[in-house]
Fold this protein.
Amino acid sequence: MRYNPDIVIRGETDADIFPIENVTVAAFKSLAISNQTEQFIIKALRAAHALTISLVAEVAGRVVGHIAFSPVTLSDGTEGWYGLGPVSVLPEYQRQGIGTALIQEGLSRLKDLNAAGCCLVGHPGYYGRFAFENAAGLTVEGVPSEFFFVLSFDGRVPEGVATFHEGFKADCDSWPGVCDSVQGVGCRDHT
């Protein structure tokens, strides 16, 4: 990985909405593990005012990356936990430290909000570098444990079931007419 020193990480603005969608579509377009619905998840989270933190990465004034954090409900009643994702970087800017910078800044901002922790569903080989780990006592329905990761900010990991925001169920059918409006949109069933 080469580091791009020209990265600027900042909060999203209204002007970033379409660039974020395009970055997200491009980032997930060729991933076999994706249903190409990530842009609809972000749209649903934004519409529900559930984007606690939404950051973009810019290089030379161009949005090249994005990360979202939203509240997670835990079955044991523990509060203050957030879900990380989706995180996206344009393919031509990947492996330059942009995803890492987005994740580190997002986690820092969660800590500034006095969050108790963060969880995600992701690639087992990637998130350990940020101190995420599998937790035996906390699960997500339908997700194998090796793909579910937690990072406690206070040393305590809740037990039970984590439920991501309803927006994570969004797909093309959730946003009629949007599939054609986003450049290169995925949704395998609709392209």
Q: What stands out?
A: The chain has one domain: 7-186. Residues 89 and 128 are 19 Å apart (CA to CA).
